[in-house]
Design a protein that fits this description.
Helix 2 packs across helix 6 and helix 5 runs antiparallel to helix 6. The chain is about 50% helix and about 0% strand. It has about 150 residues and is mainly α. The protein is built from seven helices and no strands. The longest helix has 18 residues. The relative contact order is 0.16. The protein has one domain.
Length: about 150
């Protein structure tokens, strides 16, 4: 039995080493900030960048594990997807989903559950969350208001 476990462990290690050769997930670029939205307050901007900025701006913080596959693949995908939906560093360019931001935070969909364990700074106290939601509504509007 120990030979099977040893062979399995060696195979897993070899696979982990080989997947490091896949180039996707290594582009840790943060292009320059072109234009930001007219934030309602510096506090909204601060809360947004602390909670949402890694995926929705060009101010992404790339931790050490962002260079190790498969975590690098997941992070790269999440940042690319987040920036395509809402990118406060390229405000006014293309379609932005800013009016959905408050609703996503309100419903607990943002930040995503899998982001919080490794980013405790994104976990807001209830009063900070209320302030962020109010600031997002003041800055971007609120899609949920249009549904009522």
């Amino acid at each position: 039995m120990s030979k099977i476990i040893r062979n399995g462990a060696l195979t897993a290690l070899a696979a982990l080493v080989l997947i490091q050769l896949v180039p996707y997930g290594r582009d840790h670029s943060n292009p320059p900030v072109a234009n930001e939205p007219p934030w309602d307050s510096p506090e909204t901007r601060r809360l947004f960048l602390a909670t949402c900025g890694d995926c929705h701006s060009h101010e992404t913080r790339w931790p050490w594990y962002a260079s190790i596959a498969p975590a690098s693949w997941l992070m790269q995908y999440d940042v690319e997807e987040g920036r395509s939906e809402l990118n406060v560093s390229r405000w006014g360019e293309g379609k932005q989903e800013g009016d959905e931001a408050a609703g996503m935070v309100r419903k607990g969909k943002m930040p995503p559950w899998f982001y919080l364990p490794l980013h405790p700074e994104a976990r807001l106290a209830p009063d900070e969350e209320r302030a962020l939601i109010a600031g997002l509504v003041a800055t971007f509007g609120d899609e949920d208001e249009h549904e009522h």
